[in-house]
Design a protein that fits this description.
The chain is α/β, with parallel strands linked by helices. The chain is built from 14 helices and 20 strands. It has helices spanning about 15-25, 55-65, 80-90, 120-125, 135-145, 155-160, 205-220, 225-240, 255-270, 325-335, 350-360, 375, 380-390, 420-430; strands at about 1-10, 30-40, 45-50, 70-75, 100, 130, 165-175, 180-185, 190-195, 200-205, 250, 285-290, 300, 305-310, 310-315, 320, 340-345, 365, 400, 410-415. A 9-stranded mixed β-sheet has the order 3-2-1-4-5-6-7-8-9.
Length: about 425
């Protein structure tokens, strides 16, 4: 996937283009960039802004658009009317998701757009937005209305929607009971997305939020799920922010379980001829929280990884409780070997088992022909089988398999501490 970030350069890498590159790299995305302005700033002070010329801006855009398939665009700092109009001219015909992050003022105090350019921003940039992500301050600047009991978040969002944006999220709109909410207005619905509040001044949270929105909307096409993913990602990045310079802490997007599993799923789908290893019941890939108490604490795909001809497709979203069978297998193993937190099921093949044995991986199996009647008639076959396979074990499993039963497909399940180690084992055995 290729995502284009359009914005200003921040030499401290706390925000702007540099922040986007960090975020998209951690999401296993190739980040293309078009720089609109050079800023001089750090964690304490804002210095100068120097916009790029129209010629170099057009040259950057043409270089990228003519060479790459672009899956989505994020627009950040645009600074002046010439930049705004040039971007509109080159982007107006593109039929791909565009997230607009209307950055107006730096956390360190510098203006990131000329006041005279805000009119053109509303006229040319906002109509490009699949989603626009202003914070409370930015929404008030764009609408020239203060959010209060009369000018409600909905009223403000509708005014921005009339400017041409399809979907609006106003972040940090409401703080209550140590929770912070974002107001969302889609075409035909409105709602709040709420998470815990972190009373911590930081740089870069808006950039991480809008980048995460774009990533998720390109992947999942669902506005609400994209915003929920972005909210969680931003919360974690603020929580993990680090004081690198002498001033404000910089947000730090550490890989969450979701990101780790997403990246490994992407790697799995790219393995050559992997479709040959997808069973008839299809594949799920799971990753648990530490010491999960139930499958509701195990992340999995709500649908499956499915084969369509020679192509492998992820059908569904990552959710806790998204898998039943593979998650139950992992839960059962984790109760005995708590370091094992990830698993995937693949097709049973004799040559795969031969490779596994040659590699001397720790392997256990069970015979479904020996299942008790109460298990066959409604009990948990997976739980029974895994428990039987490892009951006398002294080492955590790399592999557990069974050869099936009447009407039941044989299966191999690969286990490891993390999803990336699961992938390493898959590459060895197929």
């Amino acid at each position: 996937m290729n995502i284009l970030s359009i914005g200003g350069s921040d030499p401290s890498s706390g925000a702007g283009i540099q922040s986007d590159i960090k975020v998209f790299s951690k999401l296993d995305i190739h980040c293309l960039t078009v720089i609109t302005a050079i800023t001089g700033q750090n964690t304490s002070n804002f210095g100068m802004v120097e916009p790029v010329s129209k010629n170099i801006l057009e040259n950057q855009l043409e270089s990228i658009i003519t060479d790459f398939k672009i899956d989505g665009i994020k627009i950040g700092m645009v600074y002046n009317s010439e930049i705004i109009k040039t971007l509109y001219h080159h982007l107006k015909k593109l039929k791909i998701p565009i997230v607009v992050d209307p950055v107006i003022k730096s956390t360190t105090g510098g203006m990131l757009i000329e006041k005279a350019a805000i009119i053109d921003f509303k006229k040319f940039i906002i109509p490009l937005a699949t989603i626009i992500t202003p914070n409370k301050f930015e929404a008030e600047i764009l609408t020239k209305m203060k959010i209060n009991s009369i000018n409600t978040p909905e009223k403000i969002a509708k005014k921005i929607q009339r400017m041409g944006a399809k979907n609006i999220v106003i972040t940090g709109i409401k703080i209550k009971n140590k929770k912070i909410s974002d107001f969302v207005l889609e075409k035909n619905k409105k709602y709040y997305i709420t998470d815990k509040e972190i009373s911590k001044i930081n740089r870069g949270s808006g950039c991480i939020h809008s980048a995460s929105v774009l990533y998720s909307i390109v992947k999942n096409k669902n506005i609400r799920k994209a915003l929920e993913f972005a909210k969680k990602n931003t919360f974690n990045s603020i929580k993990n922010s680090k004081k690198i310079g002498k001033g404000i802490a910089i947000t730090n997007m550490e890989e969450s379980n979701e990101i780790k599993l997403l990246n490994s799923i992407n790697e799995f789908t790219k393995i050559k001829n992997i479709y040959k290893n997808i069973p008839e019941c299809q594949t799920n890939f799971v990753y648990s929280k530490q010491k999960p108490k139930s499958i509701k604490e195990i992340l999995g795909i709500s649908g499956r990884i499915v084969k369509s001809g020679e192509e492998v497709i992820v059908a569904g979203d990552l959710v806790y409780g998204g898998s039943k069978h593979v998650a139950t297998a992992l839960l059962t193993v984790n109760k005995k070997y708590s370091k094992i937190q990830s698993a995937i099921n693949i097709k049973y093949k004799n040559d795969t088992i031969s490779k596994i044995k040659k590699l001397k991986l720790t392997t256990y199996d069970y015979d479904r022909n020996h299942e008790p009647k109460n298990v066959k008639n409604g009990g948990s076959t997976i739980e029974w089988g895994i428990k039987n396979a490892i009951k006398n074990s002294t080492k955590p499993p790399d592999i557990i398999y069974h050869k099936g039963d009447f009407g039941k497909e044989p299966m191999i399940i690969v286990f490891a501490e993390t999803p990336d180690i699961v992938i390493k084992k898959i590459l060895k055995i197929i």
